[in-house]
Design goal:
Order of helices and strands: HHHEHEEHEEHHEEH
Structural class: alpha+beta
Number of helices: 8
Number of domains: 2
Number of strands: 7
CATH topology of the largest domain: Heat Shock Protein 90
CATH class of the largest domain: Alpha Beta
CATH superfamily of the largest domain: Histidine kinase-like ATPase, C-terminal domain
Shape: elongated
Helix content: 55-70%
Radius of gyration: 41 Å
CATH architecture of the largest domain: 2-Layer Sandwich
Strand content: 5-15%
Length: about 325
């Protein structure tokens, strides 16, 4: 192969220079897609931060005050329950001791009177056993040994059962008992047997303490509070029912005067019912409601029980 001359080398160099130069020609730079600028985050002002913290502290304070109030009321309730229980147990015991002392001291006129005293002691003993059984049942439920079957129950059916169990006693005493049926779609969260027991006790107690008049049972749902309020309105004396604690004091005095040991007193029954209702997350209150005339007041016992929302019933 012949060697290239100077002219050929010059042409080759020019060609190489043109080829390399083409790659070095300036081209406009392509821009990358523009990213959206992040929006500035809102920074609360110091005043807004202060107000938010103040609201949180206020809410915590309200919750603390509510918890303290509930604890205080529960402490009062426990003290009242213990005082009432000790009185109820002491009364039949004192009766038994008194009658047995008469027999042991040979103070009976004849065997017939001695047998009468023995029968009285036997009745007092039966009352004592019954009372202890009821207290133990409530205590076991409160302690958790006997569990409650809390479930949605139709309130109308429960009140029908209460009517069947109480109307005869009211009729025998010529007392008009009226239980207004609630709407069939009202359901409450409760233990069916114990809830029915509480309502029957409330009606029975009112019937037993009245000589005449009427008892009205009505239902008042309160969706905003989450409760159903059941009112038992009767015509007992307002002076003995202004507060549940006044009721206890009244019963202590009346029991001592009457000497009737055959039944659990209304005050003790009220405390038992309050315990059962509270275990179902409800409340039982005795209210004095004045009517249009000051001389004719009536008593309202309010049983508040958790309301089941309709969505929960449907599901």
């Amino acid at each position: 192969m012949a060697l290239m001359g100077w002219s050929d080398l010059i042409y080759v160099g020019i060609g190489l220079g043109l080829g390399l130069g083409s790659n070095l020609i300036w081209r406009p730079r392509q821009k990358s897609p523009q990213q959206p600028e992040p929006e500035p985050q809102y920074q609360p002002t110091p005043q807004e931060i202060y107000l938010e913290e103040f609201d949180a502290i206020s809410e915590q304070l309200k919750q603390t005050q509510l918890a303290y109030q509930m604890a205080s009321e529960m402490s009062q309730f426990k003290a009242g329950f213990l005082a009432r229980t000790s009185h109820e147990l002491r009364s039949p015991l004192s009766s038994m001791i008194g009658t047995l002392q008469l027999i042991l001291s040979d103070l009976c006129d004849d065997p017939a009177e001695e047998r009468e005293f023995v029968e009285q002691a036997h009745i007092a003993a039966l009352k004592l056993v019954k009372l202890i059984d009821e207290i133990i049942s409530v205590a076991k439920t409160e302690h958790g040994s006997e569990t409650m079957d809390i479930e949605p129950i139709q309130l109308a059916k429960v009140l029908d059962e209460v009517d069947d169990l109480t109307y005869l006693q009211a009729a025998n005493r010529s007392i008009r008992l009226e239980i207004s049926p609630p709407e069939p779609d009202i359901y409450v969260l409760a233990d069916r047997a114990r809830f029915r027991q509480v309502l029957v006790n409330l009606v029975d107690t009112a019937v037993a303490q009245m000589e005449e008049g009427s008892i009205n049972v009505s239902v008042h749902p309160s969706p905003e509070s989450g409760y159903v309020h059941i009112w038992i309105d009767d015509q007992r004396s307002v002076s003995a029912w202004s507060e549940s604690w006044d009721l206890l004091k009244h019963d202590l005095d009346s029991d001592a005067q009457s000497g009737d040991n055959s039944k659990v007193s209304p005050g003790m029954r009220l405390l038992m019912n309050q315990t059962l209702v509270s275990l179902m997350n409800g409340r039982l209150e005795v209210l004095a409601v004045p009517s249009e005339t000051e001389e004719c007041n009536f008593t309202r016992t309010q049983c508040s029980i958790p309301l089941v929302q309709q969505s929960a019933v449907i599901s």
